[in-house]
Amino acid sequence: MTTSSLQFDLPKPDITTWRAGNTGVEGVWQFDSGRAGRDVLITALIHGNELCGAWALKGLLQAAVRPQQGKLTLAFCNLAAFDRFDPADHDASRFVDEDLNRQWQLDRIESGSTLERRRARALRPFIAHADWLLDLHSMHERAAPLLLAGMQARNLELAKRLRTPEHVVVDAGHKDGVRMRDFGRFGTLNPIGDDAQTQSLLLECGFHGDVSSRTVAQDMCVRFLQAAQTLPAENLQRLLPGWLQADSECQWVLEVTGAVVALSADFRFTEPFQGLECIGKAGTVIGWNGSEPVSTPYDDCVLVMPSVRQAKPGVTVVRFARRRPL
Ligand SMILES: [Zn+2]
What we know:
The model has no long low-confidence stretch (mean pLDDT 93). It is globular, with a radius of gyration of 19 Å. 21% of the residues lie in helices and 24% in strands. The strands form 2 sheets. An 11-stranded mixed beta sheet has the order 1-3-2-4-7-5-6-8-14-13-10, sandwiched between helices. It has a 3-stranded antiparallel beta sheet with strand order 9-11-12, with no helix packed on it. It is built from 7 helices and 14 strands. Zinc ion binds next to loops.
């Protein structure tokens, strides 16, 4: 089955009411409790076709969720791409000029006139000040949710406290640019080292067009705000009834050991992998990078987010991971 035949059920949220923001930066809302506490940031629409996070932020705004300590910032990130969203061609609205989630390095943020670099410049102060970041995404394929925790052990500890999702990915990001969740104080690329007070998680909630992706995003917002002590659990339950879902029965760490980068648009898998397949035998051919066979490097190799949707030279098409209990 090609992904273009996947049905897109999740409607585009109407965020007209919430578009302006209250910070002077379009799409960015900030609420200050006036009390000491964490500066917590939840972001959505880093990719314009990833609607689940926009639904979650809209819900938080409609419910008038306000921090009881610290600050809460909610940001709709790539509005220009979101404006172009068409369910019949949803990949086309991932970005306008280039991927906003690869621009988080100073040489790109501080120069360049692409729409995404200008937007990264506008968003930068909010990302730089945040202590905790939850970045809500969805996926090209129909697959179980994935929490991307980066390389820091403290993010894994937080994932354990959140008690969901089942799969937590440890990875260093992409070769083609730095993600927002690895920027500045969050990141291992920071010249003065990353800041141990920070937490940053990226949640891939499921397929872009599945209604369940919205449920996953909403559930994680409740857990994250509670863990950050932005609001007590009882307030979250009252303001956001039905958002909290059952805990995962078990949690696995998927340690990414390497990525396969497309050499050209001519990349294909040998099977319609959905992601999280565990390939028993090392050396199993799972795809063709042009005329080059791509094989698994070790036994029990897990495939993380296989996709040829955006395949072109330099783009990651699958990552390999080892699995262990969290
Ligand atoms: Zn995304």
